[in-house]
Amino acid sequence: MTQSEYLTVRGTQCPYCHSQDVEGSEVDINEGGATQEIGCNTCNAEWIDTYTLTGYMEV
Ligand SMILES: [Zn+2]
């Protein structure tokens, strides 16, 4: 799966085997973004999702 395909499915599928049985660990917040380790329960692949800060909301 390409990066843009991964974004199209909104990170809900394994980029290697396309399984939806994926599990994320805790989110690591850093300056301007965040990362999260993800694992696939079907093929046992591991990867890191990357997030970018897009703004802030008033509460
Ligand atoms: Zn997989």
Describe this structure in words.
With 59 residues, the protein is mainly beta. The chain has one domain. It contains one helix and three strands; from the N terminus they run αβββ. It has one helix at residues 3-8, and strands at residues 22-30, 33-40, 46-52. Strands 1-2-3 form a three-stranded antiparallel sheet, with no helix packed on it. Strand 2 (33-40) and strand 3 form a beta hairpin. The protein is globular, with a radius of gyration of 13 Å. 3% of the residues are buried. Bound molecules: zinc ion (ZN). The site of zinc ion has 8 residues, from loops.
Assess the beta-strand content as a share of residues: 35-45%
What bound compounds does this protein have?
A: zinc ion
Total helices: the number is 1
Mean pLDDT, all residues: 97
Task: Report the structural category.
Answer: mainly beta
Helical residue percent band = 10-25%
Largest sheet: 3 strands, antiparallel
H-E order: HEEE
Shape: globular
What is the radius of gyration?
13 Å
Distance between the termini: 37 Å
Number of strands: 3
Work out the count of structural domains: 1
- Main-sheet strand order equals 1-2-3
Which spans have pLDDT < 50 for at least 5 consecutive residues?
A: none
Task: Give a brief outline of the structure.
The protein is mostly beta strands. It has 1 helix and 3 strands. It has one domain (3-52).
